[in-house]
Specification:
Family: Belongs to the binding-protein-dependent transport system permease family. OppBC subfamily.
Radius of gyration: 24 Å
Number of helices: 13
Strand content: under 5%
Order of helices and strands: HHHHHHHHHHHHH
Membrane topology: Multi-pass membrane protein
Distance between the termini: 30 Å
Protein name: ABC transporter permease
Keywords: Cell membrane, Membrane, Transmembrane, Transmembrane helix, Transport
Structural class: mainly alpha
CATH topology of the largest domain: MetI-like fold
Pfam family, one: BPD_transp_1_N
CATH architecture of the largest domain: Orthogonal Bundle
């Protein structure tokens, strides 16, 4: 429990530090939130009044403490562009991004376990020799390049099976609009799955040649039990860590993919906010992303700890 408490405190400290750095970086942007709201032709008296209403006349440390106190109460302010509550904008966009993320994670998990195990069992055979260069090729391509290629292949030039733009209905769940998710999910999976597949392949090869599996083989266990009951659990630990790393960088890698498909997620929201100098949205979105990354890493560490304990118990059994 002391380890968990330390990790929680460390995570909270990380999120707090990132919020401070983002707050300071936003204040260094060459823009005036009051002028963004009132327009370039607004009189100076109106600008001065609005700056006082927004608290921009206060010292930076006081502005940050006011924002932090309001954020802890669940009040992230209003968007300077749309005058909509930032929490409402984040709720809508985060729900869409999490739907996309969950599908990408599920596809990555299935591909990594299935194909990674297959390549390990047929190591150095024709399947392995043909698949590895393809995985390296996809791993080297940026996500936005894959997104554009998929749009050209399946939505515009060659085939018109799927929509090129993800025009989600905000009144319906993203899962209920699956045809708009196919291409974004495919682009992100093609960009991230090769790393996980190769990770599982390497872990499975090491596990299959370990003394632990050799001893199980000498006991006369069937091949499928060796793979599923002994080798695959040993490959779970690097898979958990690799999947956590993939999810942690999701919001940075998905930004251009969301832009390519006009997908209404948190990445496109942050991009629009930076373009419009929408300070409250930028501050809240980056802080929320940081909290999400910290949470994912914490859950991955917990799962890895449980996995290690389970494997040690299993190996002690006769």
């Amino acid at each position: 429990m002391s380890w968990l408490a330390r990790r929680l405190l460390s995570g909270l400290g990380t999120v707090l530090l990132i919020s401070v750095l983002v707050f300071l970086a936003i204040r260094l942007l060459p823009s005036d939130p009051a002028r963004v709201i009132l327009g370039p032709g607004a009189p100076e008296a109106s600008l001065h009044t609005l700056r006082e209403q927004l608290g921009l006349h206060l010292p930076l440390w006081q502005q940050y403490l006011q924002w932090l106190a309001a954020a802890l109460r669940g009040d992230l302010g209003l968007s300077l562009d749309s005058q909509v509550a930032v929490t409402q904008l984040l709720d809508q966009r985060f729900a869409n991004s999490l739907a996309l993320l969950s599908l990408v994670a599920l596809c990555n998990l299935l591909l990594a376990v299935g194909l990674g195990t297959l390549l390990a069992l047929y190591r150095d055979r024709w399947v392995d020799r043909l698949t590895l260069p393809v995985l390296v090729m996809f791993k080297s391509l940026p996500g936005f390049v894959l997104a554009i290629a998929l749009i050209m292949l399946f939505a515009t030039s060659l085939f018109t099976w799927l929509p090129a733009v993800s025009l989600l209905d905000p009144e319906r769940s993203a899962f209920a609009q699956g045809r708009y998710l196919v291409l974004p999910v495919a682009a992100l999976v093609l960009a991230s799955a090769p790393y996980l597949i190769r990770l599982v392949r390497a872990a499975m090869i090491e596990a299959l040649h370990s003394d632990y599996v050799a001893a199980a083989r000498l006991r006369g266990l069937q091949p499928w039990r060796l793979v599923l009951g002994h080798a695959l659990p040993n490959a779970t630990l690097p898979l958990i860590q690799g999947l956590a790393l993939t999810l942690s960088v999701f919001f940075s890698s998905t930004l251009l993919v969301e832009i390519a498909f006009t997908f209404p997620g948190v990445g496109s929201l942050l991009n629009d906010a930076i373009r419009l100098r929408d300070v409250p949205v930028i501050q809240a979105a980056v802080s929320a992303i940081a909290a999400f990354v910290v949470l994912v890493n914490l859950l991955a560490d917990l799962l890895a700890t449980l996995c290690i304990a389970t494997l040690r118990t299993q190996r002690l059994q006769p």
